[in-house]
Specification:
This protein has about 230 residues and is an alpha/beta fold. The chain has eight helices and twelve strands. The strands form three sheets. The protein has a five-stranded parallel β-sheet, sandwiched between helices. A four-stranded antiparallel β-sheet has the order 6-7-8-9. Strands 10-12-11 form a three-stranded antiparallel β-sheet. α2 runs parallel beside α3, α6 crosses α7 and α6 packs across α8. The longest helix is centred in the middle third of the chain and has 28 residues. The protein starts with a strand and ends with a strand.
Length: about 230
C-alpha cells in the first residue's frame, strides 16, 4: 500500500523532530519544513494527503499559509498547531478552512488520533466526489443526472420518455462521434429489434424538439448519408 504523505510545518526543532519520528513510525511519509515561505514552496511542489501546520512561524504565518493553500485547494486536510490559550488563532484558523486544531503542548497520541480522523474523513468525501462526478453527464449547457434520470438544458428541465432518455445518453456518451442508425439502434433498442431503422429518425426528431428550443443552438446534428452526432453548434 502506498504511504500517506504528510507535510509537517513547525519551526521548533524539538517538536518538529518528535512529530517526524512518531509519524514515520506510524507508517506515514513525512516531509518536515521549518519556515513559512519554504513551506508554501514545499506544499506546491508535492502531493499531500495532510498538512500539519504550526501557526507561529517565521517567514509566513500558519494562518496566511492556510489562506493561500485554500485558494485552490479545498480538500487537503490541514490541522493547525496552536499555542495554548490562543483563541484568536483557532477561530481564524477554522474561518480560513482548517479541518481541526491541536493545542500545544499536545500528547502525541492525540495528534495521531486527529490525523487518522482527518484522513478517514478525506477518504469518505473523495469517494462521494467520484460517485457524484460519474453520475453527472454534461455537455455545453446540457446536464444529465444519471442517478435521477433528470435532464436539463440551460436553466430548464427537459422531460424525456425512457427511450428518448436512453437515446440522448447514448449520443452524449459518444459525443462528437458520428453514429450511424444501426449503431444507435443496437445501443438503444437492442440487438433483437426487428422494426424499421426509421425509428431512429423518428426518435431523434422527438428528442430534438424537446432539447433544441427556439433560440437555442442545436446539439444534435444530422450527418447526411451517415447518421447523427451530438456536438456543439458551429
Ligand atoms: Ca512556532
Amino acid at each position: 500500500m502506498k504511504k500517506e504523505t504528510i507535510l509537517v510545518v513547525e519551526d521548533e526543532e524539538k517538536i518538529a523532530r518528535l512529530l517526524e519520528l512518531e509519524l514515520e513510525y506510524e507508517g506515514y511519509q513525512v516531509t518536515k519544513v521549518m519556515d513559512g515561505l519554504e513551506a508554501f514552496d514545499a506544499y506546491r511542489s508535492g502531493k499531500w494527503d495532510l498538512v500539519l501546520l504550526d501557526v507561529m512561524l517565521p517567514g509566513l504565518s500558519g494562518i496566511e499559509l492556510l489562506r493561500r493553500i485554500r485558494i485552490n485547494d479545498k480538500h487537503t486536510p490541514v490541522l493547525l498547531l496552536t499555542a495554548k490559550g490562543s483563541v484568536e488563532d483557532k477561530v481564524s484558523g477554522l474561518d480560513y478552512g482548517a479541518n481541526d486544531y491541536i493545542t500545544k503542548p499536545f500528547q502525541i497520541e492525540e495528534v495521531l488520533a486527529r490525523i487518522r480522523a482527518a484522513l478517514r474523513f478525506k477518504e469518505v468525501t473523495e469517494v462521494e466526489q467520484i460517485e457524484v462526478d460519474t453520475d453527472l453527464l454534461t455537455f455545453a449547457d446540457l446536464k444529465i443526472n444519471q442517478r435521477t434520470r433528470e435532464v436539463y438544458r440551460g436553466e430548464g428541465s427537459v422531460d424525456l420518455t425512457p427511450r428518448e432518455y436512453d437515446l440522448l445518453v447514448y449520443l452524449l456518451t459518444n459525443k462528437r462521434q458520428v453514429l450511424n442508425r444501426d449503431q444507435i439502434l443496437e445501443a438503444v433498442w437492442g440487438y433483437d429489434f426487428l422494426g424499421d431503422t426509421n425509428v431512429v429518425d423518428v426518435y431523434i426528431r422527438y428528442v430534438r424538439k424537446k432539447l433544441d428550443l427556439p433560440n437555442m443552438p442545436a446539439l444534435i446534428h444530422t450527418v447526411r448519408g451517415v447518421g447523427y452526432v451530438l456536438k456543439e453548434a458551429k
